[in-house]
Specification:
Oligomer: single chain
Number of helices: 0
Shape: elongated
Largest sheet: 6 strands, antiparallel
Helix content: under 10%
Length: 131
């Protein structure tokens, strides 16, 4: 029998399964078999109402000009083959490529977050698999 899991560890000690998905990076590094990536955008400079609270992904949050968020991605499996993840709490995965990763025992749906950025000068930049 082939082991479907990577050597990376979930927060509860289990292994992260192979697949095609991303999640927001917590801490300085990604689990084994994941690649770190980021997205950076220039925030609105006029009428900027940025605020932050709660737990944030690894990143740089400059209240005056820039936001940079890090994420962890892997693409070593078929997103159409459901992966097994803990279902004790709500969670969200980020899409890697054009398909959502199927997850055993869940209904997958696409959602999006819209950030209003300043379209001058810097605009938006990214590095890694998610974007």
């Amino acid at each position: 029998q082939q082991d479907r899991h990577s050597q990376g560890q979930e927060s509860d000690g289990g292994a992260w399964p192979s697949g095609q998905y991303c999640f927001y990076q917590v801490g300085d590094t990604c689990p084994d078999n994941f690649q770190s990536g980021w997205i950076l955008w220039q925030d609105e400079r006029t009428r900027n109402r940025n605020s932050r609270r709660g737990t944030l992904p690894q990143g740089e949050y400059d209240s005056t000009a820039l936001t940079k968020m890090y994420f962890c991605c892997r693409a070593d499996g078929d997103p159409d083959i459901p992966v097994e993840l803990p279902r004790g709490r709500n969670f969200g995965l980020l899409k890697y490529g054009d398909k959502c990763q199927q997850v055993e025992g869940t209904q997958v749906r696409t959602e999006y977050i819209l950030w209003d950025n300043d379209r001058r000068e810097l605009g938006q930049q990214s590095h890694g698999g998610m974007i």
